Sequence to fold (661 residues):
Amino acid sequence: MRRSVVVVGAGPRGAGVLERIAASAAEFGVGSGVELDVHLVDPYPPGAGRIWRHEQSSLLWMNSMAADVTMFTDESVVCDGPIVPGPSLHEWAVDLREGRLAGEHVPPGEVGEELRALGPSTFPTRRLQSYYLDWVLRHVEASLPAGVHAHRHRTRAVGLVDGSPQRVRLATGEELDADALVLASGHLDADPTADEQDLVAFAETHDLQYFPPEQTTDTELDRIPAGETVIARGMGLAFVDLVVLLYEGRGGGFEPDGPDGRLRYVPSGTEPVLHVGSGRGVPYHAKTEYTLRGPRPPLPRFLGPEDIAGFVRRGGVDLRRDVWPLMAKEVGWGYYHELFHGHPDRVRGTWDEFAGAYAEVDWYSDARAELVAARVPDPDDHLDFERIDRPLHDVCVDDLDALQGTLRHYIDDDLRRHVDDRYTAELGAFVALLSVYGQVTELSGTEALTPASRARDLSWWQNLFSSLASGPPGPRLRQLLALSRAGYVRFLGAGLVVEADEGAGVFRARSDSLDGVVVEARTFVEARLPAPSVSRSADPMLAALHAEGQLDEEVLDVGEGCPTKACSSAVRSADAAVAHGEGAVVLHHTGLVRVRPSDFRLVDDDGEAHPTRFAIGPHTNVRIPGAFTRPNTNALSFRANDALARAVLAQVVPAAASLSA
Fold:
């Protein structure tokens, strides 16, 4: 018997799903009278996909070190499928240059030179990562067990024909049988929101330039002329890419300018002047460049699987009110564990004494504050989440130049804290933060959180986590400081608002950090990815399934009305209040594909999970982190891939029911 699985998306996530299907295939009877075809469909390069494809600027880096990138499970991963180890990016590079990979050769040109020099703490280019991901997929394909066959289709999936089996329509006109369909496309483009459409129309009317949210590598930045005043909204990784492409990408460069890695910008003469702000008003925190002095903190301590199970049993959970105190306490545990073990000269007493007292106090309590003050004398060594989350909350000046000095000082201090091993307690906090992220992701995949909390708090938490854990390498912030000192980047601060001034025919930017100061520009760049949206998806497969009611967008009732399931199909386009029963229902569209958290099956308009259709990745309401991850961290991404793969196998292989019973 022959069965078929179609995986839409052949980037890292799709490759990871294939690897997990292959790992468990024999257990489910594949090869014992059953042949399984796995079709990988993607218009972008297999393995690398769109984000990591080789055809992008060689100036763009990853924001992870080479030793912190792997596509393979290890003994730390707790999953039902077999563990199949493999090399990290750094280990692969070492194996390749030392000739230990049969038939493989160091690539030519700049990438080959980079690979030969790559160390474990190097931040690789995305082009080098594309080679690693290409090898991973080829390695998985070459290692497929008996009965499993992989097929690549370098095209786009555009629709689905229902039936038994269902058939996936490709842009080439071909159709593929699909006993199971897996949507693993990653971040998806979306048509502009109503507000963004208004800005597009405003720009066209007044001969301005507006760049809606998208992958920065795909933005036509050549349209921005030299000397142009530009407003940019967003200070995350898309902003870092924007800066790289607008300055180094136009021939500018950096040279040493004094001690401590300080740089000076050498202009090319083709630069615009970038005015940038965001909600928080500061860039993401730099990556650390040191290791822990003490042992790794024992985690989880205050927020582990049993605590999550308790919240699930309880239900009606508000993340900020009920869970955040434990999240903060857990991060504090990692922070102070490293401070006591790595810097005993800056604390009073022993770790055991502190830990025993810390375990007994609530995060938001005078007792906790008094304990820290008594045991950690220097206030600069206290963990202050309010300052971290809103670092500019007390900054408001009436002079744009004065704000530049404030922001440069903030960025310089952040760099110092992530380079100087006096501050390794922040790495202890980071280790705990990763543990917290995994637990909260598990919680968010259940029905425990109230709809209002899901709508309000998960995006806040994701933003805070990204700012702390997903920042750029330190050299990128040193370059940003050099551009600021040279006057090519101007910071606008927190609470940025950009408006279309019909009377003047320009974009106007103001912020909470500036009193009475407004910046006008004829060019406005959204330096961020588009918000997820099923209803506005530019992906033809997703759009078609949604239009036919086969795939549902998560819609949350954030008021006092019907439960989420009943409200889900009531509204399709935007947040709204509708009459339902005795009162008004306020609906919030998250834009995410609804899946069943236990096995990632698609949920339809009626709230029913489809037996043969699955989705996984950032476009779903089970918010799984990146498709590759750090080794030895029991990565949630790998556990999710494994759960989905085994659900697919149980569905499509007839022998699965008896074998897994």
